[in-house]
Every structure is written in C-alpha cells, then in structure tokens.
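User: Please fill in residues for this 303-position structure.
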C-alpha cells in the first residue's frame, strides 16, 4: 500500500451521526468525531498530541526525538512516520525483548526509527520521566517525549479538536483513556456546561483520576471551573490489549452497522462501554453523545 504524504493542515474531521433504534428509544443522539480519517498513519489523538510537541522541538532546533512505548505502540508508530516526514531522527525505546517484530515495529524500522529494547525495569523507570526536552539518560542526546506523548503541550492539539465540535449543555464528550492525557485535554477545552466521560482501557484502580487531575492542575490554573468529568473502569476487558470474543463480536456488529472501523485496544472498548452505559440508562434523555474516534487503526493488525 502506498501512503499519501502527510500535510499538517487538514480540514476539520467529519462528525458522523449514528442511527440506531436504541438511541431513539433512550432519547439520545450519538455522533462520532472521525479523527481516524486525518491520515492513514498519522491518525487520531496521536497527531493532535504531537503537533505542538514537535513544534516545540523545532523551536529548540532539536534534530533527534526519543520516546518510549510497547511493541504495538500507536504513539511510536505515529512518531516514526512523522519523524521521516518532518526530517527528525527518531529513537524508540521498546519495552521488553522481541525476536519477532510486530507489524508496528517493522513499520517504525522501515521509516527510519532506531529501535532499542529495554528491560521492563528500565522501562518502568523511564515512565517516571515526564519532563520533556531532556532525555532521561545523559548518554542520550535529543528531545525526550514521555510515554504516549504525555505532556502539557499535547493538550493544545486536543483543544483544536474540541473547537471543531458543537457546544451546548446537552453535550457529553467521550473518549478512550490510556495515559489520560487526551481526556485531560478534552476536559481542559470543553465548555463548562458540557460533560466528559472517559473509558479506561487498562486496569489500575483510580490511576487515571489521579493522572488526569495532575495534568489539569498543571494546565488550568487560570480556569477555576471545568466541565464535570468521570472515568469508567468497567470496560478494560482484563487489561491493556486484552480482548475477548464479546469485544470482537461487538466490534464486528458496530462496523457492519456504521461502516466505522474500530481497533481492539482503544476504540473498540470505548464503543463497547458506551453501548453498555446507554443500555443501563447512564446518560440523561436528551443528551448528545460525541464519541471521539481516536484512530489507532494500525492496532487492528494484532487481533
Ligand atoms: C494512545 C491512544 C489513546 C489513549 O490516549 P491517552 O492520551 O494516552 O489517554 C486512545 N485511543 C487511541 C487510538 C490511542 O492510540
């Protein structure tokens, strides 16, 4: 497959209405923000998050970007491609040893990213390193980007996405959460009368509440009131990357009904969770749910 070049300027991505008898019955509207359509590789929240981080790297005249991730990381996959397109050298620190390269790792290598495997212990230590533009080890020279692009600058790109959406007191934004950075960006940018509902894709009680609050504290000092927000821990299917037949069956049904492709790691769990919350009457009648399709479709190759 040949990949079209990436242009950092794209029109606002579409907002697609979903029709379903259950939505009519519950008095709800459901729309999907199709950020998966930004570009075949540079999709979804990973571009929104990296946009201002890469600009910052450019203003510092950085030429080498270093970041970390798992062997299926959407973040590193996007970073490797953007590095190639924008003229940065890139290094990816990968958790664990992998004799057989995942499809994502093969792509990253192909796009010129230097791949280095690090032990799980080292990886855990790197995770604590959230400050940007200084790499965690003095032997390395470059601009450091924390796991998943977790960085206050990431919130600015997410804000641009929210500005493309309608406003109103009936609106509930929903998105899948990994590090929680995207959710923090949505909460930070959402008008106060709206609501924000995250769906966690990993196991870790209360972890996301903590991460999201921390990021918000760093970024929203000037804003005292924020949209009400919550994160559901009920739809991680046993942990990050864990999938079962209920999830895959749901994804197939959803894709057949809507024509919207999902990935099993993030967006599959988001829509599964949303469908369940709708059935359990967790959203007031009259609400307009706006689900953010955060992209990540390269992850479909791993089921
Ligand atoms: C990384 C990713 C997320 C999670 O984003 P966070 O900001 O880490 O919470 C959600 N969806 C997709 C498709 C992703 O690749």
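Assistant: Residues filled in for all 303 positions:
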């Amino acid at each position: 497959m040949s990949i079209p070049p990436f242009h950092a300027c794209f029109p606002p991505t579409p907002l697609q209405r979903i029709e379903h008898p259950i939505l009519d019955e519950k008095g709800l509207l459901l729309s999907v923000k199709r950020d998966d359509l930004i570009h075949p590789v540079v999709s979804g929240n990973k571009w929104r998050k990296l946009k201002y981080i890469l600009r910052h790297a450019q203003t510092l005249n950085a030429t080498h970007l270093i970041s970390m991730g798992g062997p299926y990381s959407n973040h590193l996959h996007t970073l490797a491609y953007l590095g190639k397109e924008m003229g940065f050298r890139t290094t990816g620190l990968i958790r664990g040893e992998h004799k057989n390269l995942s499809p994502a790792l093969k792509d990253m290598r192909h796009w010129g990213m230097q791949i280095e495997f690090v032990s799980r212990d080292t990886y855990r230590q790197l995770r604590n390193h959230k400050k940007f533009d200084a790499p965690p080890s003095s032997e390395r020279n470059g601009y450091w980007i924390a796991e998943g692009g977790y960085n206050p600058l990431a919130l600015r790109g997410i804000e641009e996405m929210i500005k493309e959406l309608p406003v109103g007191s009936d609106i509930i934004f929903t998105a899948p959460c990994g590090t929680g950075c995207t959710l923090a960006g949505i909460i930070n940018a959402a008008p106060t009368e709206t609501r924000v509902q995250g769906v966690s894709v990993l196991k870790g009680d209360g972890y996301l509440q903590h991460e999201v609050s921390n990021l918000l504290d760093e970024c929203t000092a000037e804003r005292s009131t924020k949209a009400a927000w919550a994160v559901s821990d009920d739809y991680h299917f046993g942990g990050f990357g864990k999938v079962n037949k209920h999830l895959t069956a749901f994804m197939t049904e959803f894709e057949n009904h809507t024509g919207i492709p999902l990935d099993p790691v993030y967006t599959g769990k988001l829509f599964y969770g949303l469908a369940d919350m709708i059935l359990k009457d967790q959203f007031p009648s009259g609400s307009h749910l706006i689900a953010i399709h955060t992209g990540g479709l390269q992850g479909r190759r791993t089921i």
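For context: The radius of gyration is 19 Å.
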